[in-house]
Amino acid sequence: MEANLKRLLYLALVATTAFLIKDGLDNTQGYWLIWAALIFSFITTGDTFKRRITMIVITGAITAFTAFIAGTFHSILPLLAIYFFILTFASVFVSQTYPQYFFQAFIVIIFAILSSGIPTTLAENGERFVLIMSGSMIAAFFQILFYPYFIRNELRTHLILTLQQLKKLNNEIFACLIDPAYSDNVYLYERRIHAQKIRFMRAIDRLRKIDKLAELKLSLEERETYQQRLIRLDLLYDNMLDYSQLRRRVTDYTTFSVCSQELTDILQEINTSIDGAIARVANQKFYSNTTMLHEKINRLENNYHQVLQVAAREPLVFLLFIDSLNAFKDSMDALNTVPLPLPTSFS
Amino acid sequence: MRVMAQYMKTFAFRRAFSVGFTVFIACIINYYFSFSKEAWVILTAWLVSQTTRGTPVRQAVLILITLLIAILISSWMLVHIKRWDVIYIISIIPLILSGYIAYLNKPQENKNVFYAILFSFMLIFALLSPTKTPTFMQDRGIDVMMGALIAIIAKWVVFPIHLDKEFSAGVIPILRSFILYSQALTKNLLFFNFKSAIMLEKVQVEVALQDQQAMYPEWVYEVGFNRGLRSGFRFFLVSLERTSEIFFSINFIVSRNIDPLLLNDMYADLTLSMQKNEELLTTLIEYFEHNKLIDTQSDFTSDMKALEKTLNRVVPGNLELLDISPSNLLMTALVRDIRDLRALLLQLVMSLDTSRRNS
Hints:
The structure holds two protein chains of two kinds.
Chain A: H1 3-25, H2 31-40, H3 49-73, H4 77-97, H5 102-117, H6 122-141, H7 150-178, H8 186-214, H9 220-243, H10 246-249, H11 260-281, H12 291-311, H13 315-337
Helix pairs in contact in A: 1-2, 2-6, 3-5, 3-6, 4-5, 7-8, 7-9, 7-11, 8-9, 9-13, 11-12, 11-13, 12-13
Chain B: H1 2-8, H2 11-33, H3 40-48, H4 56-80, H5 84-104, H6 111-128, H7 136-157, H8 163-187, H9 197-208, H10 227-255, H11 260-290, E1 293-294, H12 302-314, H13 319-323, H14 326-350, E2 357-358
Parallel strand pairs in B: 1-2
Helix pairs in contact in B: 2-3, 2-7, 3-7, 4-6, 4-7, 5-6, 8-9, 8-10, 8-11, 10-14, 11-12, 11-14, 12-14
């Protein structure tokens, strides 16, 4: 099942189950179960199935314990204030030092604060502890939806995500070359490129981590194909940044108007070829190749020989640009020859 | 003691202490002055203290508005919708939607997703928390505003942020990673190996450029950032981004296996130019670390002239001949990147405050 749909189904199942159990329990504190189940369902840290379950359960245990303490201290102000200072200090420090655990630290504090604001007896406080743990168990239980082919699905999802980010980066780069407004709004366009580069780097970083974990379960041949895939993606990114240098090297932006149609066509064909790579990873039967991209680059090259060599102040920068585009086309072809992963990896 | 003092200067420690102290004060205020008798003062103070360095007041106001809207809507629902199953269904929908959107677009990248999630959670909390006063809507609203005020004041008073120091702390790791990456590239010019030290250093550059994993001052780009510092800081960051692009471009060119004979001819000049670039990066680090601009006697033009002279000697300058020789074109591209890098770094060094010159 599509990973995104699985995620939607998971959230719906957790929410429905939590509400149904709360109604069945008929407990005045049942809302703790609902809060816990819903908030823990947002945890996505953990690149293997076991790690994710462990993360949810451990966070649930810590949350239940800290909420119990806060509930116990709620009427003893000095203890409560000092407790919150220490707890907040620790959670903020952890989330600053290990940003991947920001959300877990967030959950711990929020439940402790809520617990301190809803006074109760010690027995009911104990019930609260059990309800929070139960909520985390509901969130952990339905993770079973993701169990089949966990790593393979994570790899595939993040591979597709990485390629999508690469495509968006390409759009931002070509916007600088095609939009006449670039020269008057350099900061705005550069900001967009920066934001997109960050998204790509995050995506490929996550892919590297999952790939490293997957290595433990794969054969030597499969490991090499994943490694190849990562190297190719990395080089595609570097390639893109290489041809993006044109935007800074051309001093007279009106030069781009001479070849704007060719640039627009190349943009579309690069996006089509990336879509083709995505379709291939998603196991679709039909996907586009780089033939049209090759044709459009040749058209730009013809324009270069006939017009740009004379019209441009520095024709050499266009020559370097065309060479980089050709290299990109070859890299896309190489990426498409890397064998696809086999459905042999379980969680 | 020195180690402790160093530790206490780190951003993580200062922020943790500041937020902890804010919650401590909010806890006391909530105990004595809360209108709703719940924990909204503490909750708001903690949430509002989670703002980034760039525009804390603006973000505080946005969080405050989000909480007030959640309280308003939840109060309306509690008064007008009597059936709890309907309330459950209505409250689940924004949560599921925001959770799904968060899965697709990480909240750290898109602040609107963060506010959507915050709203969804606060709505559920406000709906399901037992109310203690008949005028709970107004009381919760007042408590939320008190909590926000506590957090905003605490941000100015407890370990207030010094933007220049935070900026330096964010920029130095990037500059250091550039130097190491440059050294790895230079060392591996003659033999490019994907699995070598180059890849490790490249990943470190990528890490340094991300605010999630390092101290990259992303907050400089926030809408409403200090107008006086904005243009200078942004110019520097944009220039650093361009520097990283050139380094990655060099990485790409080198990975395409330039003719080894060509590389051999140019190796000495290439290495010298890369080292000069590293010197400029070191100058920048010294400035940000010790607030001093080192007056260097190094010449940053003659090595580039020598490099281009060697290039003209080994590679034809004619565009038609370059077009038909991939290796010559690659070498030309490499030298062009190094030249662009030099221009960029010189521009950065020249933009520094020269009144802090130190011989």
